[in-house]
């Protein structure tokens, strides 16, 4: 049986209005077109669907049976269209974000607070992973976008820069006498160094910086997060490579001091990683529009 789905739309409107004329007006087609469609349907289905009355048309028994199925189908279609409209209007939906613990705490949280206040019906899911792991989650389709430390090089991923960040060397109060000492590689070898574990993008960035300037940095303690590095540095376990933007309060109050480097570490950026060629949902676009440089494209 070959019944055009548009025929069912015509049938539904005629059944609901009881009038070929009103159905034609709602469907923006002519009344003869409505009549022709119903005739084709009846021929295909093998029976009459309507009979004429002085007030218009009424369903036959067969037409009543068909309407029972068609009506539920169109209710579901309308519900689907409404759900999509609500998602575009941000009345419902969800976003899945990947970010490291550090970026989540120091970069992402203020924007999450603002977004939740503006769009309380959007569910927010955050997965904490290192930048390399976040990129893998993105490629597996498990997150919509990732907040990552740059640089990131992957042909499947599109990355756009956001805020600049500056790495630096800091120590606790026990090292405050070094705040006017300009450190070279030789000075670094004289003190215990605290660094993130290998695998983190920040650790790789510092390692690449050291290699580019023939500096040998061998950490005495390797830790899994910036927060732990800070706690160890505050307790004078050694000098730590951290992101200045994330310890600005400690530097201002004097619980940490910055140790000048002969060759400053180049600035880098936080970035937003999306899967190349995959469109973002309305909820994701609205969130990214809150970030610096407006990642809404």
Q: What is this structure, in a nutshell?
A:
The chain is an alpha/beta fold.
Description:
With 297 residues, the chain is of the alpha/beta class. Helix content is 43%, strand content 22%. The protein has 11 helices and 12 strands. It has helices at 5-17, 20-27, 31-45, 61-88, 101-118, 131-139, 185-188, 201-212, 226-234, 248-253, 282-288; strands at residues 50-53, 56-59, 93-99, 122-128, 145-149, 157-165, 167-172, 193-196, 221-223, 239-243, 256-259, 268-275. The strands form 3 sheets. Strands 4-3-5-12-6 form a 5-stranded mixed sheet, with helices on both faces. The chain has a 5-stranded mixed sheet with strand order 9-8-10-7-11, with helices on both faces. Strand 3 (93-99), helix 5 and strand 4 (122-128) form a beta-alpha-beta unit. Helix 1 crosses helix 2, helix 1 (5-17) packs across helix 3 (31-45) and helix 1 (5-17) crosses helix 4. The longest helix has 28 residues, at 61-88. The chain is rod-shaped. The mean pLDDT is 90.
């Amino acid at each position: 049986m070959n019944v055009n789905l548009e025929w069912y739309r015509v049938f539904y409107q005629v059944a609901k209005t009881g009038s070929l004329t009103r159905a034609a007006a709602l469907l923006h087609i002519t009344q003869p077109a409505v009549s022709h469609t119903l005739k084709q349907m009846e021929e295909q289905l093998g029976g009459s669907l309507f009979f004429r009355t002085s007030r218009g048309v009424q369903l036959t028994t067969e037409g009543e049976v068909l309407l029972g199925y068609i009506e539920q189908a169109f209710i579901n279609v309308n519900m689907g269209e409404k759900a999509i409209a609500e998602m575009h209007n941000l009345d419902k939906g969800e976003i899945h974000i990947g970010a490291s613990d550090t970026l989540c705490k120091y970069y992402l949280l203020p924007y999450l607070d603002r977004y939740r206040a503006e769009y309380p019906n959007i569910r927010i899911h955050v997965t904490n992973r290192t930048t390399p792991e976040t990129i893998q989650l993105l490629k597996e389709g498990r997150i919509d976008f990732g907040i990552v430390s740059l640089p990131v090089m992957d042909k499947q991923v599109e990355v756009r820069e956001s805020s600049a960040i500056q790495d630096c060397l800091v120590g606790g109060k026990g090292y405050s006498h070094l705040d006017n000492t300009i450190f070279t590689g030789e000075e670094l070898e004289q003190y215990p160094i605290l660094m993130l574990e290998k695998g983190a993008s920040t650790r790789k960035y510092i390692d690449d910086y050291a290699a580019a300037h023939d500096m040998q940095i061998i950490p005495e303690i390797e830790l899994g997060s910036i927060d732990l590095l800070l706690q160890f540095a505050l307790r004078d376990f050694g000098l730590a490579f951290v992101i200045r933007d994330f310890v600005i309060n400690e530097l201002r109050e004097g619980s940490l001091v910055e140790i000048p480097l002969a060759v400053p570490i180049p600035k880098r950026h936080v970035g937003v990683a999306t899967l190349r060629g995959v469109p973002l949902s309305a909820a994701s676009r609205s969130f990214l529009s809150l970030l610096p440089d407006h990642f809404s494209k």
